[in-house]
């Protein structure tokens, strides 16, 4: 037996452990549910999702039959709970858009820098090839500087991202932990994008006929 705030008594028919009825921003608080006669606002139904449209139409017909004086209004709980994280979903979209723009700008900058450096080192590449340097060695030489700067940028970005993500997760009462492989995967992808961006220019510079670079010397 238990007593409500209005003095009405009832029997406990079930207990649920950690029933999270609010956003994950808030901790689980004590809650009891009871049937209050005469002021029921909602009727909760579990629907078969294979044919939601016809099911909702049937429920609306039955509602009009038993309660014609009240309009039939409904909503889905998944939409209700999605509203709790609407700001997070909008924030995710903004981050995705700006990330794509930043990657595009970075790729254009790396491509331009690769073109400039390969042209500036044309004679050096020609001399190395005349002295027997292989194409793979030329590619490694040209890409080494880019790899170095990508690694430095990755370390700086990782520290900033780790701090920012921890500060953002502090807004949640229940949150996941940041795994190291997320940052490692981001670093591998960044390095792969950088190498793909400069590979074409590096390949062109490495396979160019050395005579073209040295004929004016």
Automatic annotation (TrEMBL):
GO terms for molecular function: transmembrane transporter activity. Keywords: Cell membrane, Membrane, Transmembrane, Transmembrane helix. It is a multi-pass membrane protein. Coiled coil: none annotated. Residues 97-210 form the ABC3 transporter permease C-terminal domain. It is found in: Cell membrane. The chain crosses the membrane at residues 94-118, 146-165, 177-198. InterPro entries: ABC3_permease_C, Macrolide_Exporter_MacB. GO terms for cellular component: plasma membrane. PANTHER family: ABC-TYPE MACROLIDE FAMILY EXPORT SYSTEM PERMEASE COMPONENT 2, MEMBRANE COMPONENT OF TRANSPORTER-RELATED. This is FtsX-like permease family protein. It comes from Mariniphaga anaerophila.
């Amino acid at each position: 037996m238990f007593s409500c705030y209005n003095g009405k008594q009832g029997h406990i028919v079930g207990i649920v452990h950690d029933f999270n009825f609010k956003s994950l921003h808030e901790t689980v608080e004590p809650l009891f549910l009871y049937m209050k006669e005469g002021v029921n606002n909602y009727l909760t139904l579990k629907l078969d999702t294979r044919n939601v449209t016809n099911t909702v139409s049937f429920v609306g017909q039955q509602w009009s039959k038993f309660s014609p004086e009240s309009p039939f209004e409904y909503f889905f709980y998944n939409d209700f709970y999605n509203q709790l994280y609407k700001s997070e979903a909008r924030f995710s979209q903004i981050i995705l858009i700006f990330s794509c723009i930043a990657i595009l700008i970075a790729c254009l900058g790396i491509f331009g820098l690769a073109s400039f450096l390969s042209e500036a080192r044309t004679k050096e590449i020609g001399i190395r090839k005349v002295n027997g340097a292989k194409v793979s060695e030329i590619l490694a030489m040209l890409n080494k500087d880019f790899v170095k700067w990508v690694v430095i940028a990755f370390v700086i970005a990782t520290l900033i991202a780790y701090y920012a993500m921890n500060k953002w997760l502090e807004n949640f009462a229940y949150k996941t932990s940041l795994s190291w492989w997320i940052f490692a995967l981001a670093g591998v992808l960044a390095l792969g994008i950088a190498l793909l961006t400069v590979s074409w220019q590096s390949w062109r510079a490495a396979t160019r006929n050395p005579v073209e670079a040295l004929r004016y010397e």
